[in-house]
Amino acid sequence: MRSVLCYGDSNTYGQADADTPDTRFEASDRWPGVVRQLLEPGWLVIEEGLSGRTTVDDDPVEGAERNGRRYLRPCILSHKPLDLVILMLGTNDLKRRFNKSPSEIGMGVRALVWDIRALPAGHGGRMPEVLLVAPPPIQAELGDWAEVFEGGHEKSLALAEIYERVAEVEEVHFFDAGQVVDTAGGDGFHISRAAHRTLGEAMAHEIEAIGWP
């Protein structure tokens, strides 16, 4: 059996809406759950989504535990050996309080790739495969959340190209989630139940396309 770690934020956790943080799609509806349904019994799919998770920053409002870099290493070590790590982070880095450019967000995800590379968490002490996923852009109109994500829409549009460059330099796999799903129809930065299904199907295809020996 192969194993994949799905490491992300609320769009991996399955949060339905920012105004109701305790609402969460059922396990079978979240994109990792869809991947599980499509790849079982040959794959163990591990969900590690946390609402508010950033790439490498402590959140002064939501807490230091939202720093994706703090938990990534112990998370990987607790689940090894791993065949694949999927990283889908960056949306929360768009918040105004972090004041980060798209390039700086890209530097954050690159640091996470470095951390994975530093851990021989694959089989036989090898590095697991990494699939770097650019999150879908957030919407221009965010209602009550507009100030929190001020300027975020424009920045989010640049992430896919930056992530793809990071993936090329680091020689890891890349996927642009914005090519198959969007954040329309809800609060403007979470994906819908239907989008989780679509994304899960696309992720399963990407996993199978890696070309496992």
Automatic annotation (TrEMBL):
The keyword Hydrolase applies. Signal peptide: none annotated. Keywords: Hydrolase. InterPro entries: Ester_Hydrolysis_Enzymes, SGNH_hydro, SGNH_hydro_sf. SUPFAM superfamilies: SGNH hydrolase. One of its GO terms (molecular function) is hydrolase activity, acting on ester bonds. It comes from the Bacteria. The keyword Manganese does not apply. Pfam families: Lipase_GDSL_2. Residues 6-197 form the SGNH hydrolase-type esterase domain. PANTHER family: SGNH HYDROLASE-TYPE ESTERASE DOMAIN-CONTAINING PROTEIN, THIOESTERASE 1/PROTEASE 1/LYSOPHOSPHOLIPASE L1. This is SGNH/GDSL hydrolase family protein.
